[in-house]
Amino acid sequence: MPDNCAISLGQGITMIALGLAPGVAVSTAVLRLLQAFLFGVGSADPATLTSAGVTMTAVALAACYLPARRAARVDPLVALKSD
Asked: Is the dihedral of CA 51, 57, 59, 61 positive or negative?
């Protein structure tokens, strides 16, 4: 993997972690408020929170990786000459 791609992925992972941590806390607080509307799911069901977190992380990683890989394949001189 090219070095620029790794840098972009590292920045993306940082943003994912910064969004996931408060997101879990806020979702737990909101779930407690909406507990009357939840049928068959506890207010802080670990399986639900884990599956939601894993799904969101996978989508965010794909959203970071695909453009980073594509940008890493472009030759900088060709990109500069096209401007």
From this structure: negative
Is 49 within 8 Å of 28 (Cβ atoms)? yes
Domain residue ranges in the chain: 3-82
Kindly report the length of the chain.
83
User: How far is it, in rounded angstroms, from Cα 39 to Cα 49?
Assistant: 16
| pLDDT value, residue 2 | 52
Rounded to whole angstroms, the Cα distance separating 58 from 39 reads 27
Render pLDDT for 13-63 as a digit per residue (tens, 0 to 9).
899 889 988 988 888 788 777 777 767 766 667 887 788 889 988 999 899
Nearest CA among 79, 61, 77 for reference residue 69: 61
Between CA 71 and CA 15 the distance in angstroms is: 19
Contact 9, 64 (CB under 8 A): yes
